[in-house]
């Protein structure tokens, strides 16, 4: 009998897991509460970066000194809503502890590098299989700094990246502006990471992957999964919309909404949402002909945001807001991103035409140590956790899907999964 696996959530992690499970000969049913790749998913609205070099977890040594600013400045690049502080305090303590020393940052970096190392190539293969290869570009990513000293101030991150095998090209002002002429002249130093890539429409990409999985035999059910039925230590069914979906295995890939399901599978895990925003400028049809748009994805150090040329237009994404799953969006944060666009690309028309702008808020599924949970659940090895990919879920989903399929079919995972073990949080403040 073919093993039947129910995958809960059809964001990028669930979509890739479905394809890889089918490739491993499993029978697959995807259970998704919204449209695949729809606006409810983090996978829809990210910056599209397939940044195989994004190995530095968000917390760095000394970050604790900035916590009062995070609470007092509701519009800073990282903000914590005062009312949510008591609830998030334990997560925050673990978050700060995970980046307390350079050694801890380095340990996580090596683990993330194994997950990310060939992400652009893996995504290119997946997109080709799904018939959407042009959505994946492999032309590198650019980091722009006002001065070389700003790059040097980021020294820990680049030093650790180098130790994990990341290589890059440093660009003086002329070379930087030759590579990306749309950049503001105040950026005088750049770093080009050639191995990285980007996705030109993350929502459409996820939709195409799910359509491909269905064409390969996966079933798809539009419903909210609410729990599991275990009998004698084995999974018998996933509960969704008041009914039981009989199955032999399940994958929890519900992004920032995975915590309650993980608890029902025996694991109380510190999953939090780091809310983020994007603004997309429809182009070129909405902009005057003379508007100068960037051709490469760019991360600018002084705005802490990533701007990416996409199929639909120019997207800027960023901001971290710790306020839980339920609080209403603070659209002022998206307006800050919009204003950054004009500061980064002076060739855009100011003000940007209101009709060309679209705003979005979504939930990064974040573990405090910046590493996802990939591994068996405590209740039964029939349930696999695959969530908590934080800032790098699009890029790292390609390898995650392969690992999920390897766990489901009892094969040895292709990388060491110890750093992603969901049970690592059983030890207080372990890093
Ligand atoms: C502003 C921003 C910028 C980002 N930029 C990047 C980037 O450039 N590169 C990168 O790699 N990552 C980036 N990320 C992170 C990345 O988007 C996420 O890590 C990734 O999308 C998480 O994918 P996921 O499949 O785990 O979750 P999601 O995409 O959120 O998908 C989870 C799915 O599960 C469904 N679901 C939830 N609960 C249930 C349930 N009970 N039953 C059924 N279905 C359910 C949801 O409807 C949803 O569709 C960014 C995130 C944000 C917010």
- Mean pLDDT figure: 95
Distance between the termini: 41 Å
Structural class estimated from helices and strands: alpha/beta
| Overall geometric form | globular
Rg estimate, integer Å? 21 Å
**Biggest sheet details:** 9 strands, mixed
Strand residue content:
25-35%
Tally the helices: what do you get?
A: 13
Helix percent reads 25-40%
Number of strands: 21
- List bound small molecules: flavin-adenine dinucleotide
Low-confidence stretches: none
Care to describe what's here?
By secondary structure, the protein is an alpha/beta fold. It has helices at residues 12-23, 42-45, 67-72, 85-98, 102-116, 119-129, 148-153, 155-163, 173-179, 202-215, 259-264, 331-344, 393-408; strands at residues 4-8, 27-32, 49-50, 78-80, 136-137, 141-145, 169-172, 189-193, 197-199, 219-222, 225-231, 234-240, 243-246, 249-252, 272-282, 298-300, 305-309, 313-322, 357-366, 373-376, 383-387. Strands 4, 6, 7, 8, 15, 16, 17, 18 and 19 form a nine-stranded mixed β-sheet that branches. A hairpin with a 4-residue loop joins strand 16 (298-300) and strand 17. The radius of gyration is 21 Å and the shape is globular. It binds flavin-adenine dinucleotide. Flavin-adenine dinucleotide binds at residues 8-14, 31-34, 40-43, 45-49, 224-225, 253-257, 276-278, 306, 317, 362, 364-365, 387, 389-395.
